[in-house]
Amino acid sequence: MDVTNGAVLFAIALVFIAAVIATVSAAARVMVDPACGDGPPPPPAVTGIGSMILLLHTLRTKGFGAMIHEQYAKLGSVFTISFFGLKTTFLIGPEVSAHFYQGLESEISHGKILEFTVPMLGKEVGYGVDIATRTEQNRFYVDALKPSKLRCHVGPMLQEVENYFLKWGQQGTADLKQELEQLLMLISARCLLGKEVREKMFDEVFSTFHELTDNSLRLTSLLFPYAPSPTTRRRDKARARLSKLFAEVVRSRKSSSHFRQDDVLQNLIDSKYKDGRPTTDAEVTGLVIAILFAGKHTSSSTSTWTGARLLSHKQCLEAAIEEQQQILKKYGEHIDYNTLLEMCFLHSCIKEALRMHPPAPTFLRKVHRNFTVRTREGHEYEIPRGHTVASPLVINNNIPYVYRDPDVYDPDRFGPGREEDRAGGGKFCYTAFSGGRHACPGEAYAYMQVKVIWSHLLRNFELELVSSFPETDWLKVSPEPKGKVMVSYRRRTLRPCATT
Ligand code: HEM
């Protein structure tokens, strides 16, 4: 759910920056905080209104990534931006990121950053409950989405994908972004929420879900989640409606024992805490909303970016098609969990699209206990308690000593012999799905659904990108392709590869 952090930071930064610019003025300066005690010094810091004006200027003219990149080039891989007493320390590169991802919750955590999710998800789950309960609930997600449970979703996913594209004619044009958003909602309804929702309640559940997330993510709700405003009232009304809808489904499932299903909702209903207590209806509702929220937008923007990148790189497109031909030759048209695992090049295409277009561009944590980092160059810094720390993927995913020619779309960088995400500096080189304690439990499911969609498209359509390559819409809560992504399509039946 950290997918929102980048935008929250961005929005908060804008509000603070605007306020300060209106009231203060001083000379620009970059200074180093004095060392405290005998330990390593604190990181170099950017402070003062002048520096802030320069930062804001870069933010406005070149974007968030360029703003952080400038400071990285000037100050190195660890630096603090100090603003009105609010200190955010940026940690850039795998060498300084381990504690960020692996530190104990008592030492480094989301703090209050995700508090705005409580009215949206409910006080029975996530940041509405204590850390022990939250950890157990996270185990429910991990269990419901583990590989042995994912196998049964391939059939229903395929069915949704095949049915969806039946409505496309022999040839035509379509907005890929809109089509994939719609398709992924149908897949979520079927595989996460189950047959009843997919067949009888789809429109109502998803229009209410949109009403809920839309109003939860507006600036007023993010900054003042409990203020009585029209936005929070609409949010609460949608939340109440969604609770009622899910409660009906859960109750009807509990009362008919023969109606046992394999979807994620059923897994959450069957989940038990360590003391044997089963999940309540309210907890199941909160957990299911959280999973929809975490998976929906991230997956649809990734599917669209994967398409836009593939269709703009002829060689990659040809290699992805050839892989499908090889698989057709080996297994025929049948697709199951194992066939999907063999789509290694397609997997790398998705992974590379995520490296270049992460739906969560920055992760944030709050430091509760000082910790020390050591940079690649051997400098040590102590990050003090009270700082907010940021791991900016927009920079981390583009470090040239980790990723060769980072601006180039090159899926083979993850293939055998290169494996740049591991060779370049250990396990925190690639964090599109976060890592350590808060790693996304839906990663395997996400790859699975994007592969089901793209293997179907590659096998059944010749596609061409007819609009220009999309820019990133940074003003969205989770950055996504800006505007329409128009493709032309012509039906075809891909034949198995002729070569041995
Ligand atoms: C390409 C698609 C996806 C990406 C890039 C992605 C990425 C992430 C990230 C970055 C986090 C936050 C980790 C943190 O707090 O540091 C996260 C959390 C989460 N994701 Fe995903 N995700 C994707 C798809 C999915 C899907 C499809 C599901 C479920 C079916 C899912 C379920 C979750 C859940 C439940 C959490 C919260 C875990 C917690 O509370 O610690 N995600 N995801």
From TrEMBL:
GO MF, one example: heme binding
Entry keyword annotation includes Iron: yes
Membrane topology type: Single-pass membrane protein
Entries under PROSITE patterns matching the protein: CYTOCHROME_P450
EC number: 1.14.14.154
Stored InterPro entries: CYP450_sterol_14alpha_dmase (IPR050529), Cyt_P450 (IPR001128), Cyt_P450_CS (IPR017972), Cyt_P450_E_grp-IV (IPR002403), Cyt_P450_sf (IPR036396)
Annotated signal sequence range: 1-26
Pathway in which the depicted protein is active: Steroid biosynthesis; zymosterol biosynthesis; zymosterol from lanosterol: step 1/6
Residues annotated as binding heme: 440
Cell compartments where the protein resides: Membrane
Pfam families reported for this sequence: p450 (PF00067)
Reactions the enzyme catalyzes: a 14alpha-methyl steroid + 3 reduced [NADPH--hemoprotein reductase] + 3 O2 = a Delta(14) steroid + formate + 3 oxidized [NADPH--hemoprotein reductase] + 4 H2O + 4 H(+)
Cellular compartments per GO CC: membrane
Keyword Metal-binding annotated: yes
Keywords of the record: Heme, Iron, Lipid biosynthesis, Lipid metabolism, Membrane, Metal-binding, Methyltransferase, Monooxygenase, Oxidoreductase, Signal, Steroid biosynthesis, Steroid metabolism, Sterol biosynthesis, Sterol metabolism, Transferase
Enzyme class: oxidoreductase
Cofactor(s) needed for function: heme
One GO process term, biological-process aspect: sterol biosynthetic process
Function: Catalyzes the 14-alpha demethylation of obtusifoliol to 4 alpha-methyl-5 alpha-ergosta-8,14,24(28)-trien-3 beta-ol.
PANTHER family given in the database record: 24-HYDROXYCHOLESTEROL 7-ALPHA-HYDROXYLASE, CYTOCHROME P450 FAMILY 7
Family: Belongs to the cytochrome P450 family.
Name this polypeptide is given: Obtusifoliol 14-alpha demethylase
Taxonomic lineage from the root: Eukaryota, Viridiplantae, Streptophyta, Embryophyta, Tracheophyta
